[in-house]
Amino acid sequence: MNWEPCWLPAADVPETLRSPAQAARWELEQQNVESALSVQPQLGDAYEITDGPEGCRIMGGETGVLYGAHRLLFNRRVGLPLPVGMRAPAYPFRMLDHWDNLDGSVERGYAGKSLFFDNGDFSKDWPRLRAYARLLSSVGINVVCLNNINVQPCAQELITERFLPKVAELAEAFSVFGVRLMVSVDFSMPLSYGVPTADPLDDRVQAWWRERAALIYRYVPSLFGFLVKADSENRPGPYAYGRSHAQGANLLARALKPFGGRVVWRCFVYNCLQDWRDTHTDRPMAAYENFADLDGQFEDNVLLQMKHGPFDFQVREPISPLLLVMPHTAKAMEVQLTQEYTGQQIDLYAMQGMWDEISADLPRGTLSGVAAVANTGLSRCWTGHPFAQLNLFAFGLMAWQPMSSFKTVTRLWAQLTYSLQGVPLQTLTDSLLLSREIYEKYTAPLGLGWMVNPGHHYGPSPMGYEYSAWGTYHRADREAVGVDRTERGTGYLLQYPPALQARYRDPATCPEKLLLFFHRLPYGYRMRDGRTLIQRIYDNHMEGVWETRQMADKIQTLSAVLPEEVYQTVWERMEKQITNACEWRDVICNFFYRLSGVRDEKDRL
Amino acid sequence: MNWEPCWLPAADVPETLRSPAQAARWELEQQNVESALSVQPQLGDAYEITDGPEGCRIMGGETGVLYGAHRLLFNRRVGLPLPVGMRAPAYPFRMLDHWDNLDGSVERGYAGKSLFFDNGDFSKDWPRLRAYARLLSSVGINVVCLNNINVQPCAQELITERFLPKVAELAEAFSVFGVRLMVSVDFSMPLSYGVPTADPLDDRVQAWWRERAALIYRYVPSLFGFLVKADSENRPGPYAYGRSHAQGANLLARALKPFGGRVVWRCFVYNCLQDWRDTHTDRPMAAYENFADLDGQFEDNVLLQMKHGPFDFQVREPISPLLLVMPHTAKAMEVQLTQEYTGQQIDLYAMQGMWDEISADLPRGTLSGVAAVANTGLSRCWTGHPFAQLNLFAFGLMAWQPMSSFKTVTRLWAQLTYSLQGVPLQTLTDSLLLSREIYEKYTAPLGLGWMVNPGHHYGPSPMGYEYSAWGTYHRADREAVGVDRTERGTGYLLQYPPALQARYRDPATCPEKLLLFFHRLPYGYRMRDGRTLIQRIYDNHMEGVWETRQMADKIQTLSAVLPEEVYQTVWERMEKQITNACEWRDVICNFFYRLSGVRDEKDRL
């Protein structure tokens, strides 16, 4: 294989493997580890590692033994003690959503072309596909959605007889590693197949989906289910027929239920044709407004997939209030590994810190699953930027155990991937740990998002989304900036439980990183350290660039210890990141200087 | 034929026509007009119409008689007297540049797909192609460039044996109407054909182009020549080899000279990778800086094609200073019929007024030709918006006689096309005459350009090009807006002759429509009518919308007199124009209000 390193030792996966238990045995053999495996199907994903006079033993479900084997091997490779004890994942559903199109392109993909599709058909690169399934299983991911949630017309055919045999073939290959497949479907698909409506309450529509489900499961009995983006950004959905999202989701859920299938239904529903003049509509309120009242109305095989924040994967958002309600509904939190707004796998941005903050606000037991938009593709390191692998690795581990130490996870990944130790290990770990804060400093100031170039979303454009229809406004003028989302403003704050309302209500106590998300403030507003708001914006951006350069200097010290190809890929991107950081700093500072007329105290503008 | 009306009576052009004189006879026969034709080859494009006892007579060159026939028929159809007298075109070269790609798409095209190309090959729609050649000849256009100046790799093959037979076939069809073909070529083409350099001073390169020219003219002896965009917006050019544009153009000119071919060389050369922080570089100065000193260095079969303004077809620009220098060089002025920045054939924008203003500043005899970027395509009325036909019609007439009355030309077109008379004729003529000023009022304020959405260039984005690399900055801040281009600023003004310097130097006397092109002024600056600059911006935009609505009301009165399909096409676009005008007004006013903090005196914001 001609790939850059990842956290697993390179190995061709034998075609002969048939089950996760066989895969577990093979993984252990590969590394010459002797361990007894005991499969107890009722344990499912869970496993227990024990050590005794006869050696170590992994007992677990069919998938559990595979997860246990990986865990054991990870520890062994980095010299940690045998991880004895019982472990079960925090979330039963650990999903990775690919936004891959049948032509091989990937929406918001920064890691090369699609792993699954090529030129209108399924990929035939079985060694790579098996290696990918292995990679995902090693961090416990157990569901993969193959195709883009924005279902292109040709992708409807994934659930027709044209492509179902190929879905089945792929499902079998992935089942060896305990990974089940899911497909994104188009809510209006019956319309393309002779039904005159897609109304979820129409008998003909219900019959059509029942028959479709029967057909699908005849070919692919292991299919996890459907992922659906409905009534969102011009996708079809139940609103077109005056039906609720519960009625829409239940239509599909009832069709899939006889086969054990599930519907993963996205809550990313908002008005994407907003008039920017309208200051009453506030997009972050939309998911809650569309879904909160539907609690208890969904079939039990529906999983609502909610973005972690109320907007759309911006650099800094508070937790989505929707995650904190709907106690009678199965919920999954959606995060975005692919770095659409967070550096596009050019700039470094390690995400775990973000998830940790969200998880800290989530009571235990709130979620049934987590889903991540994939950051993988045909790139030689899987993820475009070699270090972006960490986000996939950390996502898998987070889905087992939220709020594991960010530092520990990062060190583990760096050790496994590059066999680093000592100072270089410390250097790489520190750089990654700081990368998110650095990126945030030179881009979005204090919780403002959307100051990006429209369309591709890389680089600054402070007014790029200000007069658009997407509901994305900072309302900056010569006096002030931000949107008041308290009860004096749009009232978004009231969607939170009291404790969070209290945290965010008062600008004087609101976390400063979210200050301009919740409040509209004049440029002269005094921050808690005595600096003005405008000075803080200037300072943050200057610091962001300075810290990027410092990070680059540190990364440079790794040139001798990283594989040459990895280092070159990393360094090439690091140089682009420095350019990007300078551009952000200069544009954002210039923009606010033009508006405010306030000079930088240190005269750097 | 299933097309909407145009200024010529519908007729299938017989395949049997072989020459312009035959075409002239056929045109006259079509309309049952008896006129003697006398071909005097030495008269070329000129003709004389006489009236005598034996009836009228058209004497002219081979093409002259055709132009004379059309002129006679125009007058006859609208009831004007016989246009007796001698006429010759003001410019020998009257060129139309198509930005058509071989796949059938048209860069900046708003009138459907390409007339010439379809799916990687030449169109086979001969009735349509002949009709197009006829249309062009009726207004005296005599050169057509087939393909996009941004030459895509596959379009290099137009001058290879693969496509030359097809170019020849098309050239023959167009020659019947006195229209010669031109092709856009890629300056670096030798590199694709085994020559290791494209350096114009390299023997191998010179030999390659000589051989290429011989090959081309073996197939297409009538070819007018090459159109070249070099060292411009990432196109290859002589600068890559440290050579001047004279050396670059002469390379091709010498190759074509033995065959009578010409090189039309664009002067649209500027730094498209400008740093927005750099306030010394001023893009409007670029064409002059790159070309003015080369006067006299070009071969006599080179024609320098200069945009009418110093920027790039913005709504309002002063005349390009380059047009006023280089007395020893053949020059052509380039205008843009396709409405890239002027409403995209949705909004009404009749252009002749703009050309008249430029022509008024151009001493007679300055130019050898005019070129227009085509606004035509496979649309049913040729031009997307039926009324956009007027711009093609008026361009042809302007090339014969600059500064003909805008009103007369517009009336003539409206009469010929829709047989209007009386109040409806007046209504349509008035609407078209005012359309440019109306569009200008609701879009770019007082000579500022570039406040458009990047990429597609329709609709407002006041900061869309402000932090870009394209050299397009208005530098608006909370105090002032515009760029000082006098000697106190960038010095652009000094590229003009003294009379024009005097006209533009002082804000107090500078034409107000160009005020912010030449000057940077505070929002409180007093205009000559006593209003402040900011109030004028507000007022203009309000008026622009109000006048658009008035124009729409007038157009509505034409519903009964225009053909139904025409009216529907027009009205559909009129509604979009109103929406667009409102969006421009609100965004531009909001933008300047946020910056300036100055309230509208009439409290409309």
The biggest beta sheet of chain A reads: 8 strands, parallel, barrel
Average pLDDT figure of chain A: 97
User: Unreliable runs of chain A, pLDDT <50, ≥5 residues?
Assistant: none
- Full CATH superfamily name of the largest domain in chain A: Glycosidases
Spatially, the strands of the biggest sheet of chain A line up as 5-8-9-10-11-12-13-14
Please report the total strand number of chain A as a whole number.
16
Number of distinct helices of chain A: 16
User: Alpha-carbon distance between the termini of chain A?
Assistant: 50 Å
By CATH reckoning, the class of the largest domain in chain A would read: Alpha Beta
Q: Per DSSP, what share of the residues of chain A sits in E-state strands of 2 or more residues?
A: 5-15%
Radius of gyration of chain A: 24 Å
Shape of chain A: globular
Please give the most extensive interface between any two protein chains, plus how many residues each contributes: A-B, 23 and 23 residues
Domain module tally of chain A: 3
DSSP helix fraction of chain A: 25-40%
Regarding quaternary structure, what we see is homodimer
CATH architecture of the largest domain in chain A: Alpha-Beta Barrel
CATH topology of the largest domain in chain A: TIM Barrel
Class computed from helices, strands and strand pairing of chain A? alpha/beta
